[in-house]
Design brief:
Elements (H helix, E strand, L loop, with lengths): L1 E5 L4 H11 L6 E6 L19 E5 L5 H8 L4 E4 L6 H6 L1 H21 L4 E7 L23 H20 L3 E6 L2 E2 L8 H10 L4 E4 L5 E3 L1 E2 H14 L5 E4 L4 E3 H12 L6 E4 L14 H7 L7 H14 L1 H9 L3 H14 L6
The protein binds nicotinamide-adenine-dinucleotide and 2'deoxy-thymidine-5'-diphospho-alpha-D-glucose.
The site of nicotinamide-adenine-dinucleotide (NAD) has 30 residues, from helix 1, helix 4 and strand 5.
Length: 343
Amino acid sequence: MKVFVTGGAGFIGSNFVYHLLGLPAAYSVVNYDALTYAGNLLNLERVASQQNYSFVRGNICDAAAVCAAMQGCDAVVHFAAESHVDRSIYEPAPIIETNVRGTLVLLQAARELKISRFVHVSTDEVYGDIPHGLASDENYPLQPNSPYSASKAASDMLVRSFVRTYGFPGIITRASNNYGPYQFPEKFIPLMIANALDNKPLPIYGDGLQERDWLHVEDHCRALALVLERGREGEVYNVGAGNTEPNLSMVRRILRVLGKPESLMTRVADRPGHDRRYALESSKITRELGWSPGMDLEQGIRQTINWYRSNGAWLQHVREGDYREYYDKYYTHRDKTMKTVTA
Ligand code: NAD
Ligand code: DAU
């Protein structure tokens, strides 16, 4: 099966390309990626010269380029997105353009080319804050609270509309917070690891008691491959590990593993509109496709820390590479707005 992967040079996308090409079934991959600041071909060095892998640099909003690159593919797995909540708060327009219009362009191309399967990789953030004692299943109302989650909910609705209106073979997955190798160090876990390794302050938003359900990226990729192979068309599948824990506990865990002092933790102003808690009910994918998470959280964090420790050159490259100017603009804004809070 020839799979058109969008955003395959990003964090989850690159892990997925490795996972798919490592399976016994005969898959080939066309990786279509614009290489924004978050996309990096260093992530794919181990498959770059394989015959069953090719790379096309392109924007998902460019309909002609998408159609040309998708020609001859059997399935689409769609990761490409602006994925960072804080950036979406800072500048919403590019997020809507890529995540909403880009998804529409892909759906239209896939429909025109009679693609037999379209897996849309979405997020638990579309359900918004989940009160304590509850977990969101696939029928939970969509209540997105940031421009990013609103854009993902909108793209989910576009997929749903194509399924209903055109009989399109779309499937939506909604995963919780991923962690693991190749994650850009703007996200919580890699940022905390990178700063702690450099003995820099670790910025904790607000009271640090917000909860996220941490899913190892390999567990997520395994779930996505099962959905690609056997998921039911028109369905939504939640993918969560059941590892819901407050941010403060996660930072303490990282500091403990690294042997660094808790004095590195620094309270900063909270993210506007910050969701307090995500918790997913994922029994549907277990029941229907036999998926369950395999990675223990402590073991996964240790493995991730080791990866960042051993890949200092990668970390330096993504922070100081071609997108330095863009990166600096965002962090200058962030430093201005996220003042240290004294308790
Ligand atoms: P990422 O930011 O690491 O990677 C995004 C990739 O998309 C990059 O390679 C980037 O170059 C590419 N891209 C961005 N805009 C593009 C465009 N206009 N055209 C073509 N390529 C473009 O993101 P990630 O964390 O790997 O997330 C991948 C997907 O999974 C996203 O759709 C995200 O919403 C979803 N998701 C992420 C998480 C998480 O915890 N990271 C959890 C659930 C769902
Ligand atoms: O839940 C899935 C989502 O997880 C994905 O859809 C998004 O693409 C992904 O970015 C992630 O969103 P979050 O906003 O939950 O992740 P982030 O890593 O930005 O933040 C995790 C938590 O840590 C959140 O409560 C905010 C907090 N945080 C984050 C940063 C970057 C801090 O306290 N300090 C920080 O510096």
